[in-house]
Amino acid sequence: MGRSGADAASREGAGLPRPPEPFERVYSAPDPPSPSRRPGLLAVLAVAVVLGAAGGGVLLLRSGEEPAPRTAAPSPTGPASAAPSPAEPAPAEPIAALPEPCGMVTDETVRRTVPDARQRDSANSTLTTCTYSSTGSAFRWLRVEAHLYAPANTATPVEDARRSFDAQWRQAHEAPLVRTVTLERQPGLGDEAYRWFKSDEGQPTVVGQVTARTRNAVITVSYSERGESAAQERRCLDAAAAVAREVLTSLQF
């Protein structure tokens, strides 16, 4: 080698090293797990433990399943626990027939109200009357009348009886030939009732009358005594009311 070539080599060896050539790295995705690793991974994800907020229960879910929506338990005071409303009572059956005309009042009641009485009666299928007259006084008597609005004769028996009762109540306010002392509603007797204390014009008698309706029957009880005293009002009305209660009881059968 000549001197010029050696000097050149010497200069090259004494200089800085050559920079490395650029290297481009190619990205490659990681390899999928081998089949031998899958069962272990699925076993880890197969069970999920969820503590229930209300009952502290444990819910096991398979991998990939979503938990079912939770439903709140019904409140003990909510509609689900409300007591059922009581059923309304069925309407009472209409009265089918009337008792015997003089069979609505007991013999004991008759003896107490009108001693030594003789009786007269009249009856058909819808209207019965029985009159008990004292043998010792023409002015002392007890009269019982019952009027039935039979289901066989009308489609509205109770309504017909109610209209009849209302008509009698109105007529009592305009009755001729009598002097009305008191006329008022009577509570606690049948479905509706009124009592009427009056005196006959031209006769020395006073009459206590009670009219009552129960279902499709209207009954009227009148009790008369000789006299014009206001003190007789309570006695006459009490006697008529007691007999009316007995008559209403007989209509229940």
What layout of secondary structure does this protein have?
Elements: H1 3-14, H2 38-45, E1 48-51, E2 58-61, H3 107-113, E3 117-123, E4 127-134, E5 141-148, H4 157-172, E6 178-185, E7 192-200, E8 205-214, E9 217-226, H5 232-250
Antiparallel strand pairs: 1-2, 3-4, 4-5, 5-9, 6-7, 7-8, 8-9
Q: How is this structure best described in words?
A:
By secondary structure, the chain is α+β, with helices and mostly antiparallel strands. The protein has a domain at 107-250: PknH-like extracellular domain (Protein Transport Mog1p, Chain A). It has helices at 3-14, 38-45, 107-113, 157-172, 232-250; strands at residues 48-51, 58-61, 117-123, 127-134, 141-148, 178-185, 192-200, 205-214, 217-226. The termini are far apart.
Summarize the structure.
The protein has 253 residues and is an alpha+beta fold. 25% of the residues lie in helices and 27% in strands.
Largest sheet: 7 strands, antiparallel
Please count the helical segments.
5
The global form is: globular
**Mean pLDDT score, rounded?**
77
Distance between the ends: 155 Å
Descriptors for this entry?
single chain, 253 residues, two-stranded antiparallel ribbon, 5 helices, Protein Transport Mog1p, Chain A, disordered N terminus, seven-stranded antiparallel sheet, alpha+beta
